[in-house]
Design a protein that fits this description.
Length: 431
């Protein structure tokens, strides 16, 4: 349909509502329902889930006056649903034709009402599922090109080390971390041709690429639109707080004086095989067993396959956390445990590759460095010196409040938004 609103012509599609959802926005055109209260508002539409990050960031941006929405096309019953905390609008429908109609309607709504569209993961760089291209992409999606033509800025948050990044370049930057990764054995999933094509697509398309302190080894990760500090990977620091109440059924039993050492791996069955384990779980187990043999009251707690909403209740009971011992940067597990005020051990390399600006966040990060060869010594030192554990715990919480809280990320996003709209490089290097 085409109608006149405020003297302007608006286009949209009237589409069937999802019977099981009580959402009035699906009973009318998205062009109507996603219109901002104020046409001059700063605005961003987050497309697809990014764990819980986009959900909390959109809420924090709304508190700053943004017109911000998280829109998902994913089934509420998908295998990834346990990692999510919700969305502002879910356009899933069991009929593909309805999903497609909603995508066309959303395309027009974004073009008319949002200045930025920000998606997660290069494989899902589109509103239309027919354009999804896992595990790699070799063309630029037409719908994002059309939005770009109509003046919408395109933002993106990486979904992993190989998002638009050739493994040969990551290998050099990280001192050979790929030798510990199971995907090195599957070049059809993670190889230079596929990731190189994805890199070219992102480099040509993006106005903003949120690197989220990951390795910036390839060309799409050091452009005018690249941002190196935490930006969208935020946490709700009230949800992840040191004093949260643990449900009785999730409480660990422990002996008096026992020290709990926590280690977790998501999708463990897919990410580990014999000596290929990016988190170095075998070395963690061996270190704890050695400490136990020496008489230390240490016990390893290992978790995998726990829904995101529940994992914090296990994490917060730990005395020490060992995250990953190979990668050199940190991810969701370390971030959550630091938010809970815990000392976190991780292989940590704050230096950037040559030619890439230093990261303020990496320079300040309080992770306790260890790799597979040194984790025993580092654990022993923390067991012998509880005051070091306490100091690291306090530094962890302080760091997350500054760099990963939803409010600090929203404030940073607004600065980046303003720089992007002004045509400036989104990242201002340290002086």
């Amino acid at each position: 349909y085409i109608k006149s609103v405020g003297g302007k012509r608006q286009r949209g599609f009237r589409i069937p509502a999802l019977p099981t959802r009580d959402d009035t926005r699906l009973e009318q055109s998205l062009v109507e329902s996603l219109a901002p209260a104020n046409p001059d508002q700063k605005s961003v539409l987050f497309l697809h889930q990014s764990y819980y990050h986009f959900f909390h960031l959109a809420a924090a941006l709304r508190e700053r006056g943004f017109h911000a929405q998280l829109v998902s096309f994913e089934s509420p019953d998908s295998a990834n649903a346990p990692f999510y905390h919700g969305e502002d609008l879910n356009l899933w429908h069991e009929q593909a034709s309805v999903r497609k109609a909603r995508a066309y309607d959303l395309l027009e709504a974004v073009a008319q009402h949002f200045k930025v569209i920000h998606f997660h993961g290069a494989e899902l760089a589109s509103l239309f599922e027919v354009n999804y291209q896992p595990p790699a992409r070799d063309d630029v999606p037409w719908d994002l090109l059309e939005l770009k033509r109509r003046g919408v800025r395109i933002g993106h948050s990486i979904s992993g080390c190989n998002t638009g990044q050739r493994p040969s370049l990551l290998y050099k930057a990280s001192d050979g971390v790929c030798d510990k990764c199971i995907w090195q054995l599957h070049p059809e999933v993670c190889g230079d041709p596929q990731m190189g094509a994805q890199n070219t697509m992102l480099e040509s398309l993006l106005d903003l690429n949120a690197i989220e302190v990951d390795w910036p080894a390839d060309t799409s990760r050091h452009t005018k639109g690249s941002y190196y500090d935490p930006l969208t990977y935020c946490v709700d620091t009230q949800m992840w707080a040191p004093n949260i109440d643990v449900p009785d059924e999730m409480k660990f039993e422990r002996e008096p004086g026992e020290i709990l050492i926590f280690h977790a791996v998501g999708n463990f069955d897919k990410r580990a095989k014999s000596d290929r384990n990016i988190k170095g779980s075998g070395a963690v187990i061996a270190a704890v067993e050695r400490l136990q043999a020496e008489g230390y009251p240490a016990r390893l707690v290992f978790k995998t396959g726990v829904p995101s909403k529940d994992m914090k209740f296990y994490q917060v009971q730990a005395d020490i956390v060992v995250d990953q011992l190979n990668y050199g940067r940190y991810g969701a597990s370390a971030r959550e445990c630091m938010a809970l005020g815990l000392p976190v051990i991780s292989r940590f390399i704050p230096e950037q590759p040559e030619g890439v600006p230093a990261s303020r966040a990496l320079e300040e990060c309080p992770l306790i460095h260890a790799d597979e060869t040194t984790v025993y010594d580092v654990l022993k030192d923390l067991l012998d010196h509880p005051e070091k554990r306490q100091a690291a715990a306090e530094a962890s919480r302080k760091y997350v409040m500054k760099w990963h809280s939803k409010d600090s990320c929203a404030a940073r996003y607004e600065i980046v938004y303003d720089r992007m709209m002004s045509g400036l490089p989104v990242y201002e290097p340290m002086r």
